[in-house]
Amino acid sequence: MTIKDIFHYDINRKIDGVVKVDQIQELAIGQEVREYVITKELKKHFITFFNHYNEAFSNPTADMGVWISGFFGSGKSHFLKMLSYILENKVVDGQKTVEYFREKFEDDPATFMLIDNATRNETETILFNIDIESSIKKDKTAVLRVFAKMFYNHLGFFGDNLKVALLEQYIEREGKTEEFRKAFEAKKGKPWVEQRKAFAFNGQAVVPALMETLGLSEEDAQAWFRDKNAVDFSIAQLVEDIKEYISSKPKNFRLLFMIDEVGQYVGTDTDMLLNLQSIVEKLGSECQGKVWVVCTGQEALDKIIKLRTDEFSRIQARFKTMLSLSSSSVDEVIQKRILIKKSEVIPELEALYDKKSAEIRSLFSFKYDENQAMMDIKGYTGTNDFVKNYPFVPYQFILMQKVYTEIRRHGNAGKNLSNGERSMISGFQETVQKIQNDDEFSLIPFYRFYDTLHSSLDSSIRLVVERCQKAADAGDGIEQYDVKVLTNVYIKIYIKRGE
Ligand SMILES: Nc1ncnc2c1ncn2[C@@H]1O[C@H](COP(=O)(O)OP(=O)(O)OP(=O)(O)O)[C@@H](O)[C@H]1O
Ligand SMILES: [Mg+2]
Prior knowledge:
The protein folds into 3 domains: about 10-135 and about 235-325, P-loop containing nucleotide triphosphate hydrolases (Rossmann fold), CATH 3.40.50.300; about 140-225, no CATH class; about 330-490, no CATH class. Helices cover about 55% and strands about 10% of the residues. It has helices at about 25-35, 40-60, 75-90, 95-105, 110-120, 130-135, 140-155, 160-175, 175-190, 190-195, 205-215, 220-225, 235-245, 260-265, 270-285, 300-305, 310-320, 325-335, 345-365, 385-390, 395-410, 415-420, 425-435, 450-455, 460-475, 480-490; strands at about 65-70, 90, 95, 125-130, 255-260, 290-295, 320-325, 365-370, 370-375. The two termini are about 40 Å apart.
């Protein structure tokens, strides 16, 4: 039996290292929903979120801000996307999302009921990555503009250009959308929806269409068309429009803005944070829990916000529900999504551990010095732990977490790493793939992680390792084994003693 045969799921199936909320192909979503693991920590977050969310149906509330935090690759985007799919109860591969979750919460019907109840009402979610959707110009009102863009897009207007969106909204309110579009197409010869993004170049068709449908004088239509300041936009106006929209819907209708990467986007920019805070505050007080805002960020709010305490507490008050994802959740995901074994293999692994446990225990005993053991850097706690983690060793999860964090902190590769396709889960998957054809049970040594990391490592480190490899290949006084030792040391180069 080869290593690849011991796993319950195909170890070579493609797993995206990071989840993109704007990726909506059926194939990707199908996998994301089916393979979503409810870890112990996530279960708590589901309970907190849905308790709070459901409560708002009977007790209207202004506390509708949710902040999901966690280090990079901890599953924030995946969590956000799942919440969005559950709340809208979208059909994925012919089955409603909530049915997939019924199975996942098989052992906990009470929590499932919470989720199920939340999906009973008509719900729309506006799910997006703020970094992708916002304009390049990041100024004081950047957050407001992206909220507005996404909201008007949601209504079918052209949110990318607020001047156009507000015009379309006005025409719609006048009940003249059809008429306007026809008039435009007659002049231009092409449909409005196709042409509106090149609005500024279409004056010759827009102006007469406006005159015709809205009864404007040519002078007024021209003046409006040329006016660069025609969009005098405010939070109050946006909230007003959102309110109008929800009031056209059934009583228990819910609208959610679900925004990925807000933390990285606003960063430590006080103006943008205040802009976000004001929007959430206004939506909360005006819409009373009918509109929710769910954001993600790599840092908890208090880490981002280095404002004066009173400003901080105001922002924090807007995001009453804080859900933080930790590394233990990632470990559990790797164990259950990648490393889970076929049931017939388990007795074999158990027997193996029982036979070798004394040896293994002495192999993995980490100490600072004679009597100070490092409590969390360790080997297996017992047979079950072995079966769960094999062919990895528990200390590797903790160490890899530190390696990723440090790589991000140092050098330019850090940013790359967060935008790239890599994360703990893909790192572990790639590493186990490397030994998949071995036909005897073996453990993965730490240097094996080098291959998944090396593109993110600083080039100075890569050079040393490559030089050493060359010397070993040429037999210049270095053995192959030495390369492994060096690699092992160099992956951990940024981790300080005691961290
Ligand atoms: N509960 C889970 N079940 C299954 N897979 C998960 C779970 N949580 C995270 N993953 C997987 O872990 C990887 C990283 O998750 P995700 O992209 O959501 O992290 P993130 O916190 O948004 O990272 P970043 O900070 O880089 O945006 C993805 O491959 C994702 O599918
Ligand atoms: Mg993400």
